[in-house]
Input
Amino acid sequence: METLKTIDVLNKLVEINNDRIEGYETAAKETDETELETMFLQFAHTSRKCREGLSREIMRLGGTPTEGTKVSGKFFRAWMDVKAAITGKDRKAILESCEFGEDNAADTYEDVLKDNREYLTEEQRTMVSSQYAMIKADHFRVKTMRDSLTTV
Output
């Protein structure tokens, strides 16, 4: 197993969690709705937990966890859409934009688990799978909340 490739793969997940933290902390500050603010802060907390576990593993391998964010392409557009939706006070648009960002985060985890198995130990795969489940739970919460608006 290539240690440098493992560090790169794990840093890809650190980066997506950094994106989520930055995006959700910003969204929490921007919204006037207590329910959304609480949810956004909980999602940021999920990503801080994920980032901590990933960072510990990267350092154990002799690497340095990335401090940056992806903030490019799809993810950047999702957070700009969240900000615009919050400014417009459109709850459904806020949740749709969050779901788009959550899709990107879940896809990143899924890609790591599917395409990089040879670079991860069983313990690392277990950690990443557990984090993926947490990310998917957050995604489900956003989707459920959004769907409840269309059935009311």
The first helix runs from residue 3 to 30. Residues 28 and 37 are 4 Å apart (CA to CA).
